[in-house]
Design a protein that fits this description.
This protein has 527 residues and is an alpha/beta fold. Helix content is 44%, strand content 13%. Helix 2 packs parallel to helix 12 and helix 10 runs parallel beside helix 15. The radius of gyration is 31 Å and the shape is flat.
């Protein structure tokens, strides 16, 4: 990360000082919106400088507003008018002329200037910033002051020419807001160490593929997509990696769009949608005139755990041909959705609660079908308390569509972690051990086991990890003689201490009759 730990701490401290009465879960919408606008504004200014030959953007705009707007739209997908640039806000602040309405007008102009081809990427992306909210202040002057503090903070962040500092800061702040947003954090954040495990497994042996498609049907802020793409060698090449994702919560969907673009992903490589994954199966595409489901090279997900869902009339849905998950728990509905959209030679990883390994009824039938179809290749047990929104232990399931082998690799990584203040954290050595064990696909004493289908059938298709990985450590035999010697030594020490106390007590004299009486009683006790 380009930002130093000191700089990160300063930014977070300043954010909290400017936050006022706004809850972290709401405040992030403002700070991320301003950060993203700065990113777009700086990008627009750099583009203008590269083509203007010294002419200012205001001069170009004045010569032919329509042509200037069309040219910027064609190259960037959006338009930022002269006077609406982030640098214009800074100048206005420095001359005491800034007003919150300048930002409001700029956002309105931005929405009006989005290119038709870029609507999916940019439309409504700043809608979560309510600039009239009393949380910012009780009047326009107070709201202006609050927004000014945020702009000044963003102005202090120095950009490194060789790295995307704003993107790094965005990722850092997502984690910090998650840690301070309680249960709501689960809506948008997957801990980076978990993303690392999934990303490395998904891309192993495929890093050099020229064209690769990624899909996350419960994408949150998009961190899983970005982390996975980071291991692809062509990730920085436009058109090489295609990002697909779906998110139900609009605010979180906006976070994801910002996150991807601030990490350098071009808008025409981004295909995200704000909708309900289970109720609205997407994405799909027309191939040879036929509307067919779209398949992906890698599918990843950290869906909401044991979510209630509408499972009525799902029997004819092709996604759920192996079974329909119970209405009280959508875990297997998400899993089957992911598997359905996986290419025949693709690979998927999904985080779910342990219950999916052993619960019966409808879930037991789905699990049996998956195993008989050789779809499940690995079960990785993670430590408890590594997610900000739940303390329960979770598992990563790795699945493929066309496996010849029917064995399943079980990894019990539940004990490899570092304790933090209110959570547990996977260290680099813990992550590396998981990845290497997965790639080696061999037994590791007390840690991993490759179970044959015969073993799994013998366990009635129950995948509970302790059935396959024995982590029991025998207690060393008790040394009876040493125990007796220790007890004898303690008896001797007690006698010596009692004798010393008696000697000291004999030298004591009470200063009053009552004190002397108490002293005599104590001496009798010690005899």
């Amino acid at each position: 990360m380009a930002l130093s730990a000191k700089k990160e701490a300063l930014v977070w401290k300043t954010l909290n000082e400017t936050r006022g009465k706004i809850e972290p879960s709401e405040y992030k919408n403002y700070i991320f919106g301003i950060m993203f606008y700065k990113y777009l504004s700086d990008k627009a200014q750099n583009w203008v400088q590269s083509i203007s030959q010294g002419t200012s953007w205001a001069e170009i705009w004045q010569q032919d507003q329509q042509q200037a707007a069309a040219y910027m739209q064609d190259n960037l997908g959006y338009v930022i008018q002269p006077g609406d640039l982030f640098s214009d806000w800074q100048k206005a602040i420095n001359t005491d002329k800034f007003n919150v309405m300048m930002m409001s007008d700029a956002m309105a102009h931005f929405n009006q200037g989005i290119a038709p081809k870029a609507k999916t990427a940019f439309a409504g992306i700043f809608d979560d910033m309510d600039l009239t909210s009393t949380r910012l202040g009780n009047n326009t002057q107070a709201r202006t002051a609050t927004i000014t503090d945020m702009i000044n903070l963003m102005s202090e962040i120095e950009l490194d020419e060789d790295s995307d500092v704003l993107g790094d800061l965005y990722e850092y702040l997502i984690g910090m807001f998650a840690a301070n947003s309680g249960a709501k954090a689960g809506e948008f954040y997957t801990p980076h160490q978990v993303s690392e495990i999934m990303a490395q497994i998904l891309t192993s042996g495929r890093e050099d593929v020229e064209n690769y498609s990624l899909y996350d049907p419960a994408m949150g802020s998009g961190s899983l997509l970005l982390t996975t793409a980071n291991y692809m060698h062509n990730a920085g090449k436009q058109g090489a990696i295609k990002y697909y994702g779906q998110e139900l919560i609009t605010t979180t969907y906006n976070l994801a769009r910002m996150n991807l673009m601030m990490h350098g992903v071009e808008y025409n490589d981004i295909h995200l949608r704000n909708a309900d994954t289970l109720n609205s199966d997407w994405p799909d595409g027309v191939v040879d005139g036929v509307d067919a489901p779209r398949m992906f090279d890698a599918v990843m997900a950290n869906p909401p755990y044991s979510l209630r869902w509408d499972n009525q009339d799902r029997e004819n849905d092709p996604r759920f041909k192996m079974g329909v998950a119970p209405k009280s728990k959508a875990d297997y509905a998400f899993l089957l959705h992911c598997l359905y959209h996986l290419k025949q030679d693709g690979r998927m990883a999904i985080v779910l609660p342990h219950g999916v390994l052993f619960r019966g009824a409808a879930e037991g039938k789905i699990r049996k079908n998956l195993l008989k179809n050789h779809n499940i290749s690995a079960v990785i047990g993670l430590p408890e308390k590594i997610f900000t929104n739940t303390g329960i232990p979770t598992v990563i399931l790795i699945l493929e569509k066309n496996r010849e082998n029917d064995d399943v690799l079980f990894i019990d990584a539940s004990k490899g972690f570092e304790k933090a203040k209110n959570s547990n954290k996977l260290r680099k050595q813990d992550i590396d051990k998981i990845i290497n064990t997965y790639l080696d696909h061999k037994d590791v004493d007390k840690y991993a086991h490759v179970a044959s289908m015969d073993e799994i059938v013998e366990n009635d298709y129950n995948l509970n990890i302790p059935r396959y990985v024995d982590t029991f450590e025998e207690e060393p035999p008790v040394d009876v003689q040493k125990l007796v010697d220790d007890m004898h030594e303690l008896d001797q020490q007690e006698e010596e201490l009692t004798s010393e106390i008696k000697t000291m007590m004999d030298d004591l004299v009470g200063t009053t009759p009552e004190a002397q009486k108490t002293l005599e009683l104590l001496k009798k006790v010690l005899k």
